[in-house]
Amino acid sequence: MRPFNEAHDRFRQEVRSFVEREIDPHAAEWENNREIPRDIWKKMGQAGFLGCSYEHRYGGRDLDVTYSVILAEELAKSACSGMVVAFEVHNDMSSTYVALFGSDEQKAKYLVPCIRGDKVCAIAVTEPDAGSDVAAINTVAVRDGGEYVLNGQKTYITNGYYGDIIITAAKTDTRITPPFKGISLFIVEKGMKGFSASKKLEKLGIPASDTAELVYEDCRVPAGNLLGSEGLGFKYIMQCFQRERLISSVMSVAYCEKAIDSTIDFCRNNSVSGAPIISYQANRHALAEMVSETRMAKVFTYDCLLSYMEGSDITGEISMAKYLTGELVKRVTRNCMRLHGRAGYLRGNIVCKTYLDARLNTIAAGTTEIMKEIIANKLGGSERA
Questions:
Q1: Is the pTM of this model over 0.85?
Q2: Which of 31, 244, 257, 317 is catalytic?
Q3: Cα dihedral sign for 229, 181, 122, 253?
Q4: Has 317 been annotated as catalytic?
Q5: Each residue of 322-354: pLDDT tens digit?
Q6: pLDDT (0 to 100) of residue 348
Q7: Which residue, among 38, 68, 37, has the nearest Cα to 50 in the 3D structure?
């Protein structure tokens, strides 16, 4: 079932026009500079793309999550994959915590500038010794009067270097059993004493998107910056993971489509031994397989989207979608590179870029192995994050 109507189609065209006008012409420059300029965030905000599913009274558009899916699809097909990663982390993976669990005061102070594009948001959970195992984090937060004092480290944080608002997971109770019940979330602002982005990390792909190591050294955070209630941080993270993994799956499918479209065009317009590349049966069949698998993955991902909108618990299904689409995009881009021959090995080639950029989708928001664990545990009747 196609989850879109005419209003969605008009919105898609708005996004596509924006990408063609404001992103694609600058993609090479942003990737060479390894930085996304601040003015593009403001332009995104002015266009109504930031926080479009958030409440109107805070500057959002009260739109459903299908609009976020359209944004992810169209930005993933842009010439700058770093833009879609930075944007989606801001829009659907971090500011969402303020929108869902923040107080009215927190929303007015932090959500409004995120929607306007005045501030960039990030989510800081992963640590050097705690990746997909959220319950194993070691960052602690100790209450001291009207403040919490945070100590610890975070790593691999998208938007962490240039971000302004960092949703940070820390343990407010280190003795409770099971350990995940001691996790809480805090809104940490750039410039707070004791907080720093200590290192900007260099990556295999998505160079325009910044990734950082963060340090909290006696970082004093006002008690009013606690998100929701103490001890419910793990629950909030698990709740938001469904949306995060849904968007990741959407991006993987869009990457596949971008690579396939480029490859079909290349195979039609380039020849081997006097015949178009696409005229050879092995190549036609390879394309047929990739198109078929991508279409099936897209239908399943859209089915997950519809279930998510109905409020269903799709932990198992969305784990399947993320695992399948993440592995699919690796296989598709690799095969597309093969069909491009030497041209596919050049860094400026769309397929080569997508091959490098999409590799992240089997790692971020939960690795393929963790997705398989969740699926297996669901089959066995046990629960694991």
A1: yes
A2: 244
A3: negative
A4: no
A5: 999 999 999 999 999 999 999 999 988 999 999
A6: 87
A7: 68
